[in-house]
Amino acid sequence: MNSVEQVEENVTAALDLYGAGIDEKLLNEVENILEPVKNQTWPSGIQQR
């Protein structure tokens, strides 16, 4: 997120989803797909010297 507008949109979307409940089966499927890259990061931006 790089703007206040994006933060507001994401918070609204998260609150909408929170009210909808959790599809545990779908959540497990997504977690399984993402497992190989879970907790990995990559550098971005300008490198500092």
TrEMBL record:
Sample GO molecular function, one term: D-threo-aldose 1-dehydrogenase activity
Protein name (record): L-galactose dehydrogenase
UniProt lineage: Eukaryota, Viridiplantae, Streptophyta, Embryophyta, Tracheophyta
Keyword field: Oxidoreductase
Gene transcribed to yield this protein: LGALDH
EC number per UniProt: 1.1.1.122
Domain of life from the UniProt record: Eukaryota
